């Protein structure tokens, strides 16, 4: 479960290359990104609730981000950017792999969506600030996590909302994501490195160091009968908001 990684001075070339090779299959729900396709609706459920809570919008609105800007960092081929655009946001997507950006641009054009896709390091792109900043399944792929979180914080507009998700560094995540899903081909081999996973306490500290406050994390758990779902169980993966302190 990963998107490609983007940050200033923290891009790992091997990571960008790994995800770039998956670009052609990114939108195939049965391809190498199949797990992301299963994960995305779960993440979007959390994101929609967070948007409604943060801005107090109409929960029935199909465009809760109308008039707002959104930045997705480590956007891959646009699996999250496109739903954010359909929610009404003016969306920018940034990714380290040029192949992913090309695939994202082609897919958005095919769907009639106007999304500003950028290839390169986040800190070198001269971007402004955004009402919503998302970074999902990316932090575990960067070399300098404090610098990366700091740069995400710099892109967040006053009063804005940030949403982060990442695997937890537990025995369960090692067994299910690496020794399980990667071993049987549900996730491409080499996608995850357990030592790079981040615990909720570690992420909260990184966020605090960037002068933001992390909300109570919500788990993304797996059960044979329910598949991936939001949960109180943080052992596998989790998602959380961050806002200005």
Based on helices, strands and strand pairing, what is the structural class? alpha/beta
User: What average pLDDT do the residues reach?
Assistant: 88
**Oligomer designation:** single chain
Total domain count? 1
- What would CATH call the class? Alpha Beta
State the total count of DSSP E strands. 9
Give the biggest beta sheet.
9 strands, mixed
How far apart are the first and last residues' alpha carbons, in Å?
30 Å
Portion in beta strands: 15-25%
Within the CATH hierarchy, at the fold level, what is the topology?
Answer: Rossmann fold
Sequence stretches where pLDDT stays below 50 over 5 or more residues: 1-8
* Rg, alpha carbons: 16 Å
Number of alpha- plus pi-helical segments: 7
- Just name the CATH architecture: 3-Layer(aba) Sandwich
Classify the helix fraction into a percent range.
Answer: 25-40%
Question: Characteristics of this structure?
Answer:
Rossmann fold, alpha/beta, 245 residues, nine-stranded mixed beta sheet, single chain
SSE layout and pairings?
Layout: H1 13-20, H2 34-55, E1 69-73, H3 81-86, E2 90-95, H4 98-110, E3 116-119, E4 130-136, H5 145-154, E5 156-167, H6 171-182, H7 200-209, E6 212-214, E7 218-223, E8 227-231, E9 237-244
Parallel strand pairs: 1-2, 1-4, 2-3, 4-5
Antiparallel strand pairs: 5-9, 6-9, 7-8, 7-9
């Amino acid at each position: 479960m990963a998107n490609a990684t983007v940050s200033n001075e923290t891009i790992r070339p091997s990571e960008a290359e790994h995800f770039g090779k998956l670009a052609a299959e990114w939108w195939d729900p049965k391809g190498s990104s199949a797990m992301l396709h299963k994960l995305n609706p779960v993440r979007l459920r959390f994101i929609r609730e967070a948007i409604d809570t943060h801005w107090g919008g109409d929960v029935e609105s199909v465009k809760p981000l109308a008039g707002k800007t959104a930045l997705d960092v480590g956007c891959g081929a646009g699996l999250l950017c496109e739903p954010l655009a359909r929610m009404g946001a003016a969306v920018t997507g940034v990714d380290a792999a040029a192949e992913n950006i090309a695939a994202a641009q082609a897919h958005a054009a095919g769907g009639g969506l106007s999304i500003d896709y950028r290839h390169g390091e986040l800190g070198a792109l001269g971007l402004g600030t955004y009402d919503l900043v998302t970074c999902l399944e990316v932090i575990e792929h960067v070399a300098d996590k404090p610098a990366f979180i700091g740069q995400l914080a710099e892109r967040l507009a006053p009063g804005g909302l940030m949403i982060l998700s990442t695997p937890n560094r537990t025995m369960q995540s090692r067994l299910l994501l690496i020794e399980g899903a990667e071993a049987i081909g549900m996730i491409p081999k080499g996608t995850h490195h357990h030592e790079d996973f981040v615990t909720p306490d570690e992420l909260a500290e990184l966020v605090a160091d960037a002068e933001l406050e992390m909300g109570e994390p919500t788990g993304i758990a797996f059960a044979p009968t329910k598949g991936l779902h939001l949960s109180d169980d943080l052992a596998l993966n989790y998602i959380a908001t961050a806002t200005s302190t």
